[in-house]
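From the pipeline queue, job 12 of 40. The input is one protein chain; the requested action is below.

Action: predict structure.
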Amino acid sequence: MKKISFMILISMLTTSLFAKSGKTVFETYCWGCHHQTAVAFGPSFEYIASKRSAEEIRAMITNPKEVSKIFEYKRNAMPSFQLSENNLTAITNYILSFKKEQK
């Protein structure tokens, strides 16, 4: 029982750290074009999280030109970002944290 409680605590702390670092990555790289729940120049994180998988989000961050072609977007203004694996995971998890529960 103690082992399970410890694992839950570690999971909660890890999620919290990713959320905090994800917010930092957002504020550093994304805020100028994206907002969490409102449309800015680019779509909101809430919208992105409702439409895309983690893999699609990661691909759009690192290679938006090619991903835009795959999604058949008529235009793409997003630059590519070369983030560390930790930052890429953090921002992906942060974006997905805005996914609304399906009712």
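Job complete. Residues 11-19 have pLDDT under 50 and may be disordered.
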